[in-house]
Amino acid sequence: MNASHKIPKPQHLVMNRTCLLGPLTCFPSNLSLGNRPLGNRLCFPLPSSSLYRRGVAVALMLLWFVLSPATSHAQTDSSLVLNSGTTVRGNIISASPESITLATNRGEREIGVGEIRQIRLANEPNWLNGAKTRYRENRYDVCYEQIVSEKLESDDPLVIQEVKYYLAMSAAQLAASGADVTTQQAGNLLLEFINNHPDSFNLFPAIETFADLALESGAFAKSVEFYSKLQGVQSPEFKQRAQLKLGKAKLYDSDYAGAKEALLSAETLETSDRTAQLIARCLYAQAISHTGETEKAITILHELIKNENSSQTELFAQAYNALGVCHLNNQDLKAARTAFMHTQLLFFTDRQSHAEALYHLHQISNMLQDSERSAQTRQTLKSRYRNTHWANKL
Fold this sequence. Notes:
This protein is an alpha+beta fold and 394 residues long. 56% of the residues lie in helices and 10% in strands. The chain is built from 16 helices and 9 strands. The protein has a 5-stranded antiparallel β-sheet, with no helix packed on it. Strand 5 and strand 6 (87-95) form a beta hairpin. The radius of gyration is 27 Å and the shape is globular. The protein starts with 23 loop residues before the first strand and ends with a helix.
């Protein structure tokens, strides 16, 4: 990413031009015929015959659509691709954080936000659709650069919201990965979106991402505050994820009773996401190890590690980290080191868990006077995860 890019402010949005066909016919300023630009505006009188005027007017409108730029409106209806693979098209007549209501050719239809995989708005410019595609492909730098390099020519409030949302979300992903966008910049963009668009169908993911940033940067109380805003979400899977993250935030904030309650809720919610339930169990075991039930916690974790498939990288990284914390609470430094090394060597693709394991390995190495491993883990943590609270604790 070009480090010189500055995050644009929302006032960089301008109104679309309009062209009125009447007694004088006007071309938009960016049209040209052959090699001759038409200038700011080319207006000429039409002959008096009404039939002739109508014919020329139709021809000019056709010419406008042929020569209009690629950023013009690509479709008259919005299209929603559902998780089932079905595409629903229609005019969006209302939207909320929970659902979108469309006027379709079969009547009105309300669709829950949790059922929607992706949205293409009726007035959405092609460059924005391309940026959203890049975001879905995890190419956050390309999404971010594409948005900041364009000038939105629309007064459609839903399109404006989409631009702000994907700018903030791509910035947040870049900040989390240690790129040139800072956590403060990304957080400000997310807060602006959350505060200015409380009825957006993107509100809950924006709140979750802001809380994620706060958690990763060590602002545990702030992350608890924003995860708590998601308690009323209707989607069971989203609610489970929110409860899981709330429990983790409370665990890191040393609110072990609150963590146990949230994590039990996440584990017992009936959803199709069994991995989330098992991760909640790992963190629950870690929470009870802080309240005098360390042996019970170790038993829970050993049983999970024995019975589950180790191809579940995120789950096993969480399990071994929780086991390492349990051994630390038992003052067993070598057993703790072994547990954290499982994450470091085998399950390092989970970014958050890897950073946590490196931090604990650095601390344990210092206590065991292993200067070589201490220096190695510190260097990796500081270079690869410099924006995390684990790196900032050193």
